What we know:
Elements: H1 7-13, E1 17-22, H2 25-36, E2 54-56, E3 62-67, H3 69-77, E4 83-87, H4 88-94, E5 99-104, E6 110-117, E7 129-134, H5 137-145, E8 150-155, H6 162-165, E9 171-176, H7 180-184, E10 187-196, E11 198-203, H8 204-209, H9 211-227
Parallel strand pairs: 1-3, 1-4, 7-8, 7-9
Antiparallel strand pairs: 2-3, 4-11, 5-11, 6-9, 6-10
Amino acid sequence: MTSETSPEQAGAFGHQLTFAVPKGRILDEALPVMARAGVVPEDGFHNKANRSLSFGTTRGDMRLIRVRAFDVATFVAHGAAQIGIVGSDVVEEFDYADLYAPVDLDIGHCRLSVACLASDPEETCSASHLRVATKYPNLTARHFERQGIQAECVKLNGAMELAPSLGLARQIVDLVSTGTTLKQNGLVEKQRIIDISARLIVNRAALKTDPRVAELVSAFRDNMAASS
């Protein structure tokens, strides 16, 4: 199911739709799914040398913005973008009231897990008070609270695997796909917190007020039903 909208039709709605997509691992898997729903970026989007953050699409009423995954959720939740794609880890971490995730896109599969040094004694990985390095302080704190453990979360945006060996934190909470990066850094996966996949997300107000957003949700939903 696809839809084409002319520039004249876009003007009738008063504004362009902004569709936010994440840089990184999910994007390559997301592009074919987007295309089947009628969201096709301009050629310049695929140029690796192009450092632009905003791009046109084959629809006259839609532009794409390419930003960090956490920023996708923020743009959509605050209405700067009306629709986007992001991992369920980001949706769960922020838990924005104005964010709605109506479609599981069945791509970008991984998990959010707790890991520590393989050489650490078992009791250091299960103490009553822990310092944990993570990009997900909210999910991490909630996970350990359920076990009666107070977690002091040290926010890192990358290089998480270095934290235990450098003494910053005994444990980390990070995304795990194959587990290879953990092994290469002397870490072992201890607990799985949540399984993750990419989701179509929309701004709740935009879904109610702009029929184009509802049409896109239907297009993605129908596409997923057809491929299952």
